[in-house]
Amino acid sequence: MGYDQNLGKTKIYSCPICQADTPHLIKGQKGETFALLCGNCGTGSLVQSDELSLYQLHWEEELRQILGSLEQGLDDERHPD
Ligand SMILES: [Zn+2]
8-29: per-residue pLDDT in tens? Predict the structure, then answer.
């Protein structure tokens, strides 16, 4: 079992160059360090895996809140999910 399953996938990360919260392509991994490529400006970044996980969690939480508030605004009727 290796880390190759992460290669080619994208993770949301905040690019230090273009300041965008944008999907970054995982180009490589060494131990706990990911080599990411910004999908916006193409800049490479080295990010620790735990930092990336935290960012992903934060992002998903924020996304859930945004989607939740949208649903509340748009739907008067409740849809069981
Ligand atoms: Zn960038």
Answer: 999 999 999 999 899 999 999 9
